[in-house]
């Protein structure tokens, strides 16, 4: 009887190990939309949009063209669609 209980518990533990517990990544809006403004090191002045979590809305900024982060959207519409509710 004890061995059947042990096998059952072991099977449950192993099954739970296969449940997907994905870590937060840079593609996760909960992470991406909270990243700080990153203008980059290059000198272009590309109009872009970023989410400002303190204000709860998207704000325009000028992106240098390289070395940015995921909180960088080509339009206000895209920024709002990705970061709404964050």
Low-confidence stretches: 19-24
DSSP summary, beta strand count: 2
> What strand order characterises the main sheet?
1-2
- The best one-word shape is elongated
How many helices? 3
Can you tell me the CATH topology of the domain at 24-83?
Factor Xa Inhibitor
Order of helices and strands: HHEEH
Overall CATH architecture of the domain at 24-83: Irregular
CATH class of the domain at 24-83: Few Secondary Structures
Helix content: 25-40%
Rg calc: 21 Å
Fourth CATH level, the homologous superfamily of the domain at 24-83:
Pancreatic trypsin inhibitor Kunitz domain
Q: Which secondary-structure class do the elements indicate?
A: alpha+beta
Query: Can you summarize the main beta sheet?
Result: 2 strands, antiparallel
Summarize model confidence as the mean pLDDT.
Answer: 84
For the record, give the distance between the C-alpha atoms at the N and C termini, rounded to a whole number: 50 Å
Strand content: 15-25%
GO molecular function: serine-type endopeptidase inhibitor activity
Domain BPTI/Kunitz inhibitor: 33-83
InterPro entries: Kunitz_BPTI (IPR002223), Kunitz_BPTI_sf (IPR036880), Prtase_inh_Kunz-CS (IPR020901), TFPI/VKTCI-like (IPR050098)
Signal peptide: 1-21
Would you give an account of this structure?
It is a single chain. Helices cover 33% and strands 16% of the residues. With 86 residues, it is α+β, with helices and mostly antiparallel strands. The chain has a domain of 60 residues: Factor Xa Inhibitor (Irregular), CATH 4.10.410. Strand 1 and strand 2 form a beta hairpin. It starts with a helix and ends with a helix. Pfam families: Kunitz_BPTI. One of its GO terms (molecular function) is serine-type endopeptidase inhibitor activity.
